[in-house]
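Quick one: co-fold with tryptophanyl-5'AMP.
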Amino acid sequence: MRVLSGIQPTGRFHWGNYFGAIRQYIDLQHGNEAYYFIADLHALTTVRDPKQLRQNTLDAALDLLALGLEPEHAILFRQSDVPEVSELCWLLMTGTPMSMLENCHAYKDKMQKGLPAGAGLFTYPVLMAADILAYDSQIVPVGADQVQHIEVTRDLAGSFNHTYGETFVLPKAQTLDASAKVPGTDGEKMSKSYNNTLELFEEPKAMRKKIMRIVTDARPMEEPKEPEGDHLYQLYSLFANESERETMAAMYRKGGFGYGDVKKALADAAERYFAEPRARREELAAKPERVVEILADGASRARKKAAETLRRAQTNCGLRP
Ligand code: TYM
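Sure, here it is.
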């Protein structure tokens, strides 16, 4: 299968990014043709500081490699290193109904809150469709919040194929049941824009502090509690194996425990889980030239594939003989 996904360098990655998406990237790099990119063009819709964008992009590459992405198995590159995608975006844009984009949630949410939205945010899903279609992607591993965009991609591809003949492969979103929507410290979806994130490579002490501040209800200790639907339990479950999860669930149902104990168990588990990637990241950060090399190599491989698809689309729609 051809697998592709992208992630924005808008800040340091959080548990939602990892358990919803990155973990899938790592699993799927084996036995598939995998393309993963840092979506710097998408990030331009929010990051306006050039120095920050460069730093975020390098951090994103370091994080992905430290977490287990292997350049021998997956093609890792920067979105903007493949200009063919931006060209393809225009071809798709000419066939995109405004109403389809007006329905997409990132734009709709902003409008509903009365916030100003740029054309970049409005047309964001079309660039995402170009990202996906450029590599003839079949599987797109993502969190639940991106599924709508993959539906848009399928619609745009289907309509292009209908108008101009078979051109694009229709992709499918792939989410993980247990972690398609990881909650943040306040119980809402974990997201940078909600300021409720727990970052992957946060200093252990700072991370512990944040975990201790996770919002819980004020029910008395003695009262039995239902674990399902409790965001602290959900976060703990990300790190726990089945028997640890069952023990914790039984403790909830029995009552007589403090949320502080759960938070401590969560902090210990998270610290253990990320210890190895953290060490690997430090090693990699000392060799930034290696990261530059990996991204350049990824870009040249990705470009080759995207150029073929772009040429096919240009021919089919009459731009080329
Ligand atoms: P981005 O950068 O917002 O998020 C990267 C990935 O992390 C997932 N994710 C979550 N999963 C579970 N729980 C959460 N709380 C959570 N928060 C984030 C996202 O679903 C995503 O998979 N538009 C994309 C980037 C992109 C892309 C693409 C993705 C650009 N082109 C082509 C796939 C294919 C985005 O903003 O993701």
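If it helps, DSSP finds 13 helices and five strands in the chain.
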